[in-house]
Amino acid sequence: MINFNGTYVLEGSISPLKLVEKYGCPLYVYESEVIKRQYDRLINAFKVPDLKINYAAKALNNINILRYMFSLGAGLDTVSIQEVQIGLKAGFLPENIMYTPNCVSIEEIGQAVHLGVRINIDNISILEQFGTLYPDYPVCIRINPHIMAGGNSKISTGHIDSKFGISFHQMPLIHRIIKATGLHVDGVHMHTGSDILDIDVFLQGTEILFQVAKEFENLSYIDFGSGFKVPYKEEDIETDIEELGEKITNRFMDFCTEYGRNLTLMFEPGKFLVSEAGTFLVKVNVVKQTTSTVFAGVDSGLNHLIRPMLYDAYHKIVNISNTEGRYRFYTIVGYICETDTFGVNRRLHEISEGDILAFYNAGAYCYTMSSNYNSRYRPAEVFIFNGIDYLIRQRETLEDLLNGQVEIENLKPMSHPAYS
What we know:
The protein has helices spanning 16-23, 32-45, 63-72, 81-90, 106-115, 124-133, 171-181, 199-213, 241-259, 271-274, 307-311, 398-402; strands at residues 2-4, 7-9, 27-31, 51-56, 75-78, 97-99, 118-121, 139-144, 166-167, 185-189, 221-223, 264-267, 278-289, 294-298, 317-319, 327-333, 341-349, 356-359, 380-385, 388-393. With 420 residues, the protein is an alpha/beta fold.
């Protein structure tokens, strides 16, 4: 979203205020041009003969977003059998879908085998069961490099106490399973965490993965995960993807020379591709002055955007209804019956009831982590493609909340007007 002559506009000079008039509030909006910009940056940063960018579906899983990623040439990174199934419906070929579950049953993994997708296993128990059941099915192994990386402990996945991955110290056990079952390993993988600030930490992990890769003779690819950081505020630190690309490219090509053939270099970005493409629009219900704080209460809450409460995440907030008023300090809160705070003491243009606030960086892990807590409806979603806005998810209704619930007949209060 950019400020143009005192107003905020989206791709195609579309006014977010007009979108609110058209589709209602709260509303998630995604811009295709931003997604393409980020995808192109990745493609151009890593100059290797065979590069595959697998979009992490968990970041934003609307089928229209997945289809757009497919149109750009991306593969798909999935973490559940349901994401696999949606990815297939979106048009991805099975060989372009990577399935990387955690703590799921061997039965679910068997469903993925049946669907023909790439499978990435991250624990010894499942690896042994998989090798016994499907010794001829190629498999990738997720390695835990024992590196603390990421924006905070909740999104760090490669440290020694993480539930993710097989410790690189357990390589002898992995080889014993392979020898006993005849399992074919065609890829190795790591993912150390999200919001990685230090390129050198990422490179440290790649060296560990290269050492592991040397122990397998028939690899087709090496998957370095992702975790690239994007800016969430002015002057925020972000991953220098161009510098990282240059360093990874040089080291990867050296490794391929040592290995004896070129392998595919894979990444699985989610946030890097869609975070900045998303804007979340909410309406101010009430402005409430207490003895020490001015609250702006909006028609949303942690049920729609949980990241600030779950991760202490920062989202820039702008009053797009009043772009030239005086500045005041507000604490932005939601309508959920919990401590439900989006931002504390934010300096915003003066807010009045009915104003529309815009939350930046609302493309990744926002709608996909939403819920119906307090029996609230989840919002609508809009995708701007080629300068035209499209509704890609309808706002929920009471029927959606009740769908799937099975009523016990003798508990119905038959005299109630609702049943007449």
